Amino acid sequence: MKSSNSNQPTIVAILLFSSVCHFLPFCIGSPPVNEVENETPFTYTEGHKGPKEWGHINPHWHVCDNGKFQSPIDLLSERVHVIHSLGKLRKDYKPAPAVLQNRGHDVMVKWKGDAGKIIINGTSYKLIQCHWHSPSEHTFNGTRYDLELHMVHESSHKKLAVIAIVYKYGRRDSFLSQLFHDIKRSGNGIKEKNLGIVNPGDIKFGSRKYYRYMGSLTVPPCTEGVVWTILKKVRTVSRDQARALRDAVHDGFEANARPTQRLDERPVLMFTPRENGASA
Ligand SMILES: [Zn+2]
Questions:
Q1: 106 belongs to a structural domain
Q2: Is residue 239 within 8 Å of 43, Cβ to Cβ?
Q3: Does 22 map to a domain?
Q4: How far is the CA of 134 from the centre of ligand 1 (A)?
Q5: Domain that holds residue 229
Q6: Separation between Cα atoms, residue 34 and residue 222, nearest integer Å
Q7: Can you tell which superkingdom this protein's organism belongs to (predicted)?
Q8: 3-class SS at 95?
């Protein structure tokens, strides 16, 4: 792992500034884009509109194929720059009304009210929704885990920031326990279910250490300019909980993880509290 507190390459500096997109030509003027909703004409099975074909299925999805900032990636220790100045993740979540939506390719909790925000380099990104992939999409030194949660946030300029939490089989996850019965029922043709008030603060992070890099949505249209934050701590989920998520989605989407993409020259930063700071 490289420790580099000074003399960072320019591209590292870009990650530290607020309006990342102002520096990157590919996101200037790009329209607001969200993940494809509901039933989709893509799959995770190669040869049947699988990940290698996504870029050719729809002219708006070319970046899935020829993008240079695609996600997910393998988080390889020796490529990571430790940057204390990234700072602690600033989050300010609050309980808000939410619905459970089965999009066919995944299960999503969508907040209908103000569920709070995260702040990255001075920019606020409001929490919009969260959803799960199994197995995990990001890998740690080549290891793929059993589940990955994505918390999708959007700025007032429609830029996206996603927090990812990776899980392996073990003890139950308390947030999924709250949703378990609704997730099981969502497989029975009920597309949207009112959940009442859901507190995103109930999603356990468990660590202050995180990775940060610039990437994309991991489903078509694979839009780039997404600020990724991946928590370093691998948490646990029970097999029943992971199975409920897989059973809920449509046939063929039981495994809904995109293969890892080329990192090329992109830097991956890691925040870790200073020794005298704290316990993470
Ligand atoms: Zn996702």
A1: yes
A2: no
A3: no
A4: 10
A5: 68-271
A6: 9
A7: Eukaryota
A8: coil
Helix, strand, coil distribution of the chain in percent, nearest 5: 20, 35, 45
Report DSSP state, residue 260: P
Kindly state the tokens that stand for 118.
């995260």
Asked if 160 and 152 touch (Cβ cutoff 8 Å), the reply is yes
**Please, which residues bridge with residue 161 across strands?**
153, 227
What is the tally of structural domains in the chain?
1
Residue 34 domain-assigned? no
Cα-Cα-Cα-Cα torsion 97, 153, 66, 265, nearest 10 degrees, comes to -150
CA 133 – ligand 1 centroid, Å: 6
* 72-104 pLDDT per residue, tens: 999 999 999 999 889 999 999 999 999 999 988
CATH of the domain at 214: 3.10.200.10
Confirm whether 81 is a catalytic residue: no
Residues 50 and 57: beta-carbon distance below 8 Å = no
- pTM for this predicted structure: 0.86
Which of 27, 10, 9, 23 lies closest to 224 in space, CA to CA? Answer: 27
What pLDDT, on the 0 to 100 scale, is given for residue 35?
Answer: 55
How far is 246 from 253, CA to CA, in rounded Å?
7
The catalytic residue among 81, 105, 131, 138 is 105
Residue 40 makes CB contacts below 8 A (sequence gap 6+) with 103, 104, 105, 219, 220
